[in-house]
Amino acid sequence: MTVPSLLRSRWAALGVLSATMLMTILDGSIVTVALPAIQDDLGFSPAGLSWTMNAYLIPLGGLLLLAGRLGDLIGRRTLFLAGNAVFTAASVLAGAATTSGLLIAARFLQGVGSALASAVVLGIIVTLFTDTRERTTAIGIFSFTGAAGASIGSVLGGVLTDALSWHWIFLINLPIGVATILLALPALPRDRGLGLSAGADLAGALLVTSGLMLGIYTVVKVESHGWISAHTLGLGAVSLGLLTAFVARQARAATPLMPLRILRSRNVSGANAVQLLTLSAMFAFQVIVALYMQQVLGYDALGTGLAMLPAAVLIGAVSLFASARLSNRFGERAVLMAGLVLLIGAMLWLTTVPVDADYVTDLLPVFVLIAGGGLVLPSLAGLGMSGARPDDAGLASGLFTTVQQVGMALGVAVLTTLAASRTETLRADGRDAAAALTGGYHLAFGVSAGLLVAALAVAALVLRRPPQAPASDGAAEPSTTTVKA
């Protein structure tokens, strides 16, 4: 195969898409390690520092559904390239920031760019890989890069911050972003899109984007205001009202942003429900385990990242080398349920960790069981996209990624709040700080196990094994796009 033809192959396109996922996931995890250095340099208050994360999360979660539909309308390749350009430029702006306000603004733009690019990635993958076995392999490789980004980010953030400065955790995105754009130009197939007239529901876009952004903002501020405060209840009610109005509009709009027919598929609706429950538990697990190791066991930031590295490596290895083979043999639904059982075991194990835990005997077995995530994530992506019509692939991709981000935000907000409340109660009962913190974390892990049990029940009762597609001859021609050589 010549170099030009290699660059135009489906597997080269998958590499480009995976590189973008690596960049965005790495950006999320790399920032957490550098937060103390950013605070010292730019003079953030403790409350203001959280906005270096929230300013990225709010537009990312709020714009994904709109971005997914825009990909169907104007072309997924066009939106992917635009999103990468915005993300890369915003990363340079963040790396050059000299004030807290400029950094927060740059992080917001990063979230916008990430939403535009990541919303259409799964849609591009499923239109490129029409054969069931190849698609399963492609999704496994794609999921592996997500785990790789999380593991690399936790270590690289500490290395760059200590060796150079926190500015480089953002500037490192410049060469990755430029290379991704240059490689995407020949690798990604040109697609016409359906045209804005096929679904340019501006009122619906305003309702869902404002509703999601307000909802995520409300969730991330719960820690400051509490669950039953006027702030949380009031903004939560407004957000719910906006989303309800969006659903009502979609039922009667001539060109809906999100045709409700997509939710009639058991696999689309079921996979998104399972994903919401699973990622609420799993993302909170990452945060709470890190807090436990630092606040109870006394690990530093870099030590915590290295300690959690086996979990990320195992998730990545399982998703890359085992998930596709197992799914092709036993079906994605069975593999998903097996992975959920492993994750439930990990959460239940964590409800027993002591104040003076030993890493090898108390924590390492948990990180081995967490490898079940390498079975869960690719299976969910395959099941969720299997029920979408070809012309709804971008929308289904955006919906799937939206639920992913909302689940992460909800999980962290709910479980950290429960842990903090339990800790305060135990402190009031006379427990020392370490024992009270551990008790709070035990509660959070127990609730995480409950969420995963609910996810397992939904998977068993709702999801169905998708029909096997006929083997392809290697061509990649999605039915609703025009692919040019």
Write the layout of secondary structure elements.
Layout: H1 3-7, H2 10-42, H3 46-49, H4 51-74, H5 76-95, H6 100-118, H7 121-128, H8 132-163, H9 168-171, H10 173-187, H11 202-220, H12 222-225, H13 230-252, H14 266-295, H15 301-330, H16 332-350, H17 359-369, H18 373-386, H19 393-428, H20 433-461
Helix pairs in contact: 2-6, 2-8, 2-10, 4-5, 4-6, 4-11, 4-19, 5-6, 5-10, 7-19, 8-15, 8-18, 11-13, 11-19, 14-18, 14-19, 14-20, 15-16, 15-17, 15-18, 16-17, 16-18, 16-20, 19-20
Explained architecture:
The protein has 3 domains: 1-187, Growth Hormone, Chain: A (Up-down Bundle), CATH 1.20.1250.20; 201-254; 261-469, Growth Hormone, Chain: A (Up-down Bundle). It has helices spanning 3-7, 10-42, 46-49, 51-74, 76-95, 100-118, 121-128, 132-163, 168-171, 173-187, 202-220, 222-225, 230-252, 266-295, 301-330, 332-350, 359-369, 373-386, 393-428, 433-461. It has 20 helices and no strands. Residues 469-485 have low confidence and may be disordered. The radius of gyration is 22 Å and the shape is globular. It is 78% helix and 0% strand. With 485 residues, the chain is mainly α. It is found in: Cell membrane. It is a multi-pass membrane protein.
